Amino acid sequence: MHTPLCGHAIGQPEAYARQALRVGLGGVVFTCHAPMPDGFWPGVRMREDELDTYVAIVARAADRFRGRLDVRLGLESEYFPGFERYLARLHRRARFEYILGSVHWQSPEYRARFGAGPLESFRRRYFTHLADAAETGLYDCLSHPDLIKNHRPASWRFSRLADHVGRCLDRIAATGVAMELNTSGLRKPCAEMNPGHEMLALMAARGIPVVVGSDAHRPERVGAHFVEALEALERAGYAEVHVFARRRRRALRIADVRACLRAVPGAVGPARRSRRPA
Predict the structure, then answer these.
(1) Under CATH, domain 76-260 is a member of which superfamily?
(2) Against a cut of 0.90, is the pTM above it?
(3) Which pLDDT value is given to residue 265?
């Protein structure tokens, strides 16, 4: 989940924490969009001089909810080839408990560098970059891993890419990096979670651990569609989901997680086409 520092989320961390308690969660981890160098896609992420403020507001919420909710500090950190050394330094600037790696095809920089050529080549390149990101060792988990399907969604057919995606997933599985099942995909043009069921089944076949995330940019979306996500994981062959603390992964039985959850919000608003990050 995010904070207003990214420029496209609303609500202070305490509001997100209160919603987490309402829906039966035992903890939350904030993963606001990390700074990037050289003016990379500004306006959708905190500035580098705001990182300390971000750490402080999450710590404030952790103190206020101590004993009631586990509030953790994480980061959604952009993967872009050539910025690895910058990101490695950034990840050491605070005691992050969870680093979520993202490839955003929407960024002007990404499209300018990688968007030329046939559409299917662009989509394949995106999945290759997911595997590249896992192999850097910078990340604990890869976020919304089929986000590219929202680029020209009317022409999206997973079957055209399944072999290539499978090879990329082989590389990711070898690293031990987790992947996210992001429920906010239900609000995007393809109107299904990220990833969809076909890719999720390929991940399960390779034993890739999964973290469920609501990617909330407003408090009422915390925990949205988590019950549906657990059901999707079970259909794909999973029996566990994972959480992170101190950048270490821990497994939870899906049956136990379901028992803890109370009613969660349904669909929140119509899907919107946007070039903002997920």
Answers:
(1) Metal-dependent hydrolases (3.20.20.140)
(2) yes
(3) 47
